[in-house]
Design a protein that fits this description.
alpha/beta, Rossmann fold, SIR2/SIRT2 'Small Domain', 2 domains, six-stranded parallel β-sheet, 8 helices, 11 strands, about 30% helix
Length: about 220
């Protein structure tokens, strides 16, 4: 069974109603992204950051996967599919995808602010401003912020290197180190890039489908299934 690896970004979830900060001048739901999505922002104002992610969790509970998520899950009937996503939502899981690597963490989880391996499922509930992990530290969102290492980047690189087909869906290829994953694909590995915007790339083996994620995935489904 051929291996498909899908690199997904904010564009695949935008059609479900989840905002992307890069489309609004560095603002994310009217917040300066560095205030709510950086380790410096957390250290400066943890209360603001908690409130922001509590709002994102509440929003996530109110949206549904879209056709792009669902078609990607459908591909598992014919291919060995792994999703490597920059998104912190759980829409891939809810659409039925089985193998997912969340590079930037997961919104429905929280963790110790001291021990990154002490992770708990919290679903869609709010984290209280003074809530503690079992080790006594402040419970923080399980999110990889700007200024922090991306623990699963090496795992993702190995997965991409082993792909027979690489899909890039709804990502600007601007956020590193995630954007660098494309470079691990084999020289002759076919790559399909789905995005309505022009995305800079240097690969000669990329087929560009300049559509929003749902329309692009419908075209891909016709090609692959």
């Amino acid at each position: 069974m051929k291996k498909i690896v899908a690199l997904t970004g904010a564009g695949i979830s935008a059609e479900s109603g989840i905002s992307t900060f890069r489309d609004s001048g560095g603002l994310w739901e009217q917040y300066d992204v560095m205030e709510v999505a950086s380790i410096d922002g957390w250290r400066k104002n943890p209360q603001l950051v908690q409130r922001f992610y509590n709002e994102r969790r509440k929003q996530l509970a109110e949206v549904e996967p879209n056709d792009a998520h669902r078609i990607l899950a459908e591909l598992e009937k014919h291919y060995d599919v792994t999703v490597v996503t920059q998104n912190v939502d759980n829409l891939h899981e809810r659409a039925g995808s089985k193998k997912i690597v969340h590079l930037h963490g997961e919104l429905t989880k929280a963790r110790s602010s001291v021990d990154p391996n002490l992770i708990v499922d919290i679903g869609y509930r709010a984290i209280e401003l003074d809530e503690r992990a079992t080790d006594g530290s402040i419970l923080r969102p399980h999110i990889v912020w700007f200024g922090e290492a991306v623990p699963l980047i090496e795992t993702a690189a190995n997965i991409v290197a082993d792909a027979d087909i690489l899909l890039i869906i709804g990502t600007s290829l601007n956020v590193y180190p995630a954007a660098g994953l494309v470079g691990y694909a084999g020289r002759n590995t076919p790559i399909y890039l789905i995005d309505p915007n022009e995305v800079a790339h240097t690969k000669s083996n990329i087929t560009v489908i300049r559509e929003k994620a749902t329309d692009g995935m419908k075209k891909l489904k016709e090609m692959f299934m």
